[in-house]
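Quiz preparation item.
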């Protein structure tokens, strides 16, 4: 299959937890697969929720993915005829993921990344922040605040842990609006 275009680009899908980033990523990738484009999806090793070699949304929508430990494993796995490269949980990759995405887009690939824009303290995740600046398209999604029902753009950690990365979902994190978000817990 030939490339869809000589010119690639970067799409960023971002927002808080439960905002539907993975669903949106899966939707875009599925449509490309239906259009018979060659699609590869990568995810970092750190996130082993639900399944190892799939990306999986909170409502259990799934797609096959290649699990990598480091961003430098990605380029050797991308083939000339691949059209679309999906990257899940981009905030958990090492910082070289930004150059990997740039290289792929510069070489004609459609690169779709999904990732959290903020950590549990409301601080930006650097990879997502930098890719938002680099990208041609940015989609910021919102969840529903579990406290008040307003639109939520924050991820509230509901367990007392100081590490920036604590992998987990239901019971450890909640979607909250800016009014109900409390980084002090
Ligand atoms: P993300 O990748 O952004 O964490 P997912 O795509 O995995 O989000 O999951 C989105 C789904 O999570 C929604 O379609 C819905 O079924 C579920 N969900 C659970 N809690 C919420 C919430 N507070 N607001 C919105 N959706 C929620
Ligand atoms: Zn609220």
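Solution:
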């Amino acid at each position: 299959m030939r490339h869809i275009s000589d010119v690639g680009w970067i799409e960023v899908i971002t927002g808080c937890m439960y905002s539907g980033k993975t669903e949106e990523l899966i939707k875009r990738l599925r449509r490309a697969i239906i259009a018979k484009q060659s699609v590869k999806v990568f995810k970092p090793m750190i996130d082993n929720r639900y399944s190892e070699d799939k990306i999986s949304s909170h409502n259990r929508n799934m797609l096959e993915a290649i699990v990598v430990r480091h961003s430098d494993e990605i380029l050797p796995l991308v083939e000339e005829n691949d059209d679309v490269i999906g990257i899940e949980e981009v905030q958990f990759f090492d910082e070289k993921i930004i150059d990997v995405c740039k290289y792929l887009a510069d070489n004609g690939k459609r690169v779709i990344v999904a990732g959290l824009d903020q950590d549990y303290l409301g601080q930006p995740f650097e990879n997502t922040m930098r890719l938002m600046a680099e990208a041609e398209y940015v989609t910021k999604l919102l969840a529903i605040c579990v406290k008040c029902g307003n639109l939520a753009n924050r991820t509230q950690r509901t367990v007392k842990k100081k590490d920036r990365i604590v992998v987990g979902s239901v019971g450890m994190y909640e979607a909250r609006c800016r009014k109900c978000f409390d980084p002090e817990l």
